[in-house]
Write a structure and sequence with these properties.
By secondary structure, this protein is α/β, with parallel strands linked by helices. It contains 11 helices and 10 strands. It folds into 2 domains: 146 residues, Rossmann fold (3-Layer(aba) Sandwich), CATH 3.40.50; 114 residues, Rossmann fold, CATH 3.40.50.1860. It has a 6-stranded parallel beta sheet with strand order 4-3-1-2-9-10, with helices on both faces. Helix 2 crosses helix 3, helix 4 packs across helix 6 and helix 4 packs across helix 10. The two termini are 31 Å apart.
């Protein structure tokens, strides 16, 4: 049996396209529907209650596309809304990015000293700390909120003096400690496009962990376990939805996706009115 229904993917904006790109590469035969909530970004500065409400509205719209799975391509939403979404959407599978990222970090670190760069909301609830300690109870985890990284990424500023100065400001407190981390988790899906600069500032001995690849593997495993795979030989299609600014979504989203996205291919939707 082949299940050709699409996989629904959502984020507060454009950052989750890094996860979409990983899914497209690992699961080329799957149809994908991506929804970026551009009108209400960023999620990282909002309360858990607000993020959960937005996530429920977003997934409700994705359900109108007959999706077979939901992927929360947003660390903030994964940190506070994963369990509410699983409960509300059962038996539909829902996968977040926190646990796959934590698994990758534990596997990558040799010293057990791990730093997490994330949004305020993800840091506040300690989602990565819990997930990492569940796998490695003795791990030493540092967290650093990096809200400006989201703004820079959403504007398409992925290199240059401003980005490097921001990275140095955020990383300085982490590497001033006696036991510096050997692994840094990019705990927001916006951050991988800044990876080159972050790696430059962190130094060659530090590993960067991007949860996009591990999330794609988790999605693949879930599809197989639940017999939801698209087994056709043709390539799957990708549909882009946004709640605002098709032009900006296409311009910056193309940087994240590594392919041109045309504004006319971005459908604007209203989550409040379906």
């Amino acid at each position: 049996m082949s299940d050709n229904r699409p996989i629904g993917v959502f984020d507060s904006g454009i950052g989750g396209i890094t996860v979409l790109k990983a899914l497209r590469k690992r699961l080329p035969h799957e149809n994908l529907v991506y929804l970026g909530d551009m009108a209400r970004l960023p999620y990282g500065t909002k309360s858990a209650e607000t993020v959960t409400a937005y996530s429920l509205q977003t997934t409700k719209h994705l359900l109108t596309h007959d999706v077979k799975m939901i992927v929360i391509a947003c660390n903030t939403a994964s940190s506070v809304a994963l369990e509410p979404l699983k409960k509300a959407l059962a038996p539909l599978p829902v996968i977040g990015v926190i646990e796959p990222g934590a698994e990758a970090a534990v596997a990558a670190s040799k010293t057990g000293h791990i730093a997490v760069l994330a949004t305020e909301a993800t840091v506040r609830v300690g989602a990565y700390v819990r997930a990492i300690h569940k796998l490695a109870p003795k791990a030493h985890v540092l967290q650093e909120p990096c809200g400006l990284f989201v703004t820079l990424a959403e504007e398409g500023w992925i290199s240059g003096d401003v980005v490097e100065a921001t990275a140095r400001r955020y990383l300085a407190p982490i590497f001033k400690r006696k036991a510096s981390p050997d692994t840094i988790v990019l705990g927001c899906t916006h951050f991988p496009v800044l990876a080159r600069t972050i790696r430059k500032v962190a130094g060659p001995g530090v590993k960067l962990v991007d949860s996009a690849e591990t999330t794609a593997r988790a999605v693949e495993a879930a599809l197989k376990a639940k017999s939801l795979e698209a087994k056709r030989k043709t390539s799957g299609k990708t549909k882009f939805l946004a709640t605002d600014s098709a032009e900006r979504f296409a311009r910056v989203g193309g940087i994240f996706f590594g392919e041109t996205i045309r504004p006319k291919d971005v459908e604007i939707v209203d989550l409040q009115f379906g």
